[in-house]
Amino acid sequence: MSMLQDKLTKLVPAYQESIKTFAKTHGEKVIGSVTVGALLGGQRGIKSLLCDTSEVPADAGLIVRGIPIMDLMDKLPEEVMWLLFTGEMPTAAELKDLQTDLEKRRQVPDFVWGAMEALPKDSHPMAVFNLLILALERDSVFRRRYNEGMNKDEYWKAALDDSLTLIARIPEIAAGVYRWRYDLGPRIAPKAGLDWAANYAHMMGVEDKDGGFTRLMRLYMVLHTDHESGNVSAHTCHCVASALSDPYYAVSAGLNGLAGPLHGLANQEVLKWLLDVLEKFQGNPTDEQLDVFARETLNSGRVVPGYGHAVLRVVDPRFTAFLEFGKKECPNAPVFKLAEQVFRVVPEILKGIQKIKDPWPNVDSISGSLLHHYGVTQPRYYTVMFGVSRAIGMCSQIVMSRAWGEPIQRPKSINFAALSKLAEA
Ligand code: HAX
């Protein structure tokens, strides 16, 4: 048993017990209400999911297990992973043990690459990536043990087993997609002794003379891990896992949601938008030119990608973390400078549009400008990188839900006639 499995075996019973007792004591208490506006408005603000891995207060942004994300900037993704799963930072021995366990599990079976190579090269990288995650499902311990009659109390352990294997293999899958999709040469094998994010950078094969890309990848993987449970990807994953679909099914489903342009695909859309600006003005524009360009986007009925958020009402701290990184590591990179300039110009425009609740940048408005600087110049790949990291958060949420025994999700839908009747009553 790994130290993480051992740690959770000690922590889970108390967690299970506290939720069970709580449900008995407070099961009938009212904690909110549902307005017609919320029902028709994407369920905004309805409190209907339990998530202990992270929270996103509108006025502060991501907090992972009580720690603001800005305080985790210099950590490794594996440390944040341990934190997400257990609520504590790992000791040096625990971190080492987790890294060793991931290394042991990371061999991607060959049939996965066969599935990839059977696809047309112009498939979207997210479609290929998600399909390969589904292909990994063949090895699901959860499904096998369920079929063998696993006791309910063991569900979380089997979900953890699958989660660890999935997280171990996901960087190689993603790097394999990158190299195949963009004809960059044969796949690069993982290197013993490298941490999880550094290995991903290594397997992508991006030239990294001063280690800047590896540092970016560590930060990138930390910042994108989790964002509570109501966003489309986490929520979808959560819902699918509640049917006892195993973590491969659930994570792949969540990542299909991440592939939407209003969610994780916004990072792709942002880079395309920034490159359009650079092309139009043959370089970095003046603030006035950028203002006109952004207004043209809005007037043509499109969104300015990377700006606004369903929950946040302040600058996304993950944006700030990337901004600080760029200022330190590549202050003069043209695309990064443009992303900074957009931050100066666009919020002032969006503040003038009454219906927009959040005029501030989210994480997707800047991440691609840094990737582009280091040579990852294929925006259609960016959401895959987001997905590599987000799989950690989704898996931690699955394990927690299986630990407390969350039942299958089944909210109630009503038809318009019934809604009208209720509203008029
Ligand atoms: N540009 C133009 N219009 C915008 C906008 C933007 N950046 N942000 C919001 N709006 C519009 C909405 O489209 C909506 O218009 P309609 O009423 O005509 O439909 C109106 O303002 C009200 O929206 P809101 O209440 O402020 O925001 P929502 O909660 O409905 O939507 C979104 C949140 C993130 C989807 C939205 O801000 C948006 O589309 N932003 C651009 C895309 C983007 O960056 N997405 C990534 C978000 C972060 C994330 O999930 N990352 O993975």
Brief rundown of the structure:
This protein is mainly α and 425 residues long. The chain contains 19 helices and three strands. It folds into two domains: 3-17 and 66-263 and 384-404, Citrate Synthase, domain 1 (Orthogonal Bundle), CATH 1.10.580; 266-379, Cytochrome p450-Terp, domain 2.
Structure, described:
The chain is built from 19 helices and three strands. The mean pLDDT is 97. The protein is 59% helix and 1% strand. Helix 5 crosses helix 8 and helix 8 packs parallel to helix 9. The chain has two domains: 234 residues, Citrate Synthase, domain 1 (Orthogonal Bundle); 114 residues, Cytochrome P450-Terp, domain 2 (Cytochrome p450-Terp, domain 2). The chain has 425 residues and is mainly alpha-helical. A hairpin with a 7-residue loop joins strand 1 and strand 2. It has a three-stranded antiparallel sheet with strand order 1-2-3. The site of N-hydroxyamidocarboxymethyldethia coenzyme *A has 20 residues, from loops.
